[in-house]
Amino acid sequence: MSIILSEKSEQYLQKGMTSNFVVDIMFIEEPCTQIYNPTVERIKDVDLEKYKDYEKVSNQNLILYLSDWFIKIYGKLEEYHLDVSGILKKKLIITNIDPIIKNTCKIN
Fold first, then answer.
1. Quick one: which of 53, 58, 60 has its CA closest to 80?
2. Does residue 56 lie in a domain region?
């Protein structure tokens, strides 16, 4: 497993001086729809202990901690492509997987 960084994400990481992120799932449920959206969130140094048992993927200056729920939904990927999203509030996103959208209504 490896991490591929876009040029923007490399710049973002250099500015933020942060190297630890958790990859998790944001679950959204609306009428007739369930959405599983992968998220990448910064981990504060004081919170690192909480993630010690998570599966890890790293390169020389970045560690991604994969939540059990992320692994259950998406599995372990060969590569994690990271880019930056957002206009005012920048954040990392995974670009090589899409949200899973499920239709939960039983329409006959």
1. 58
2. yes
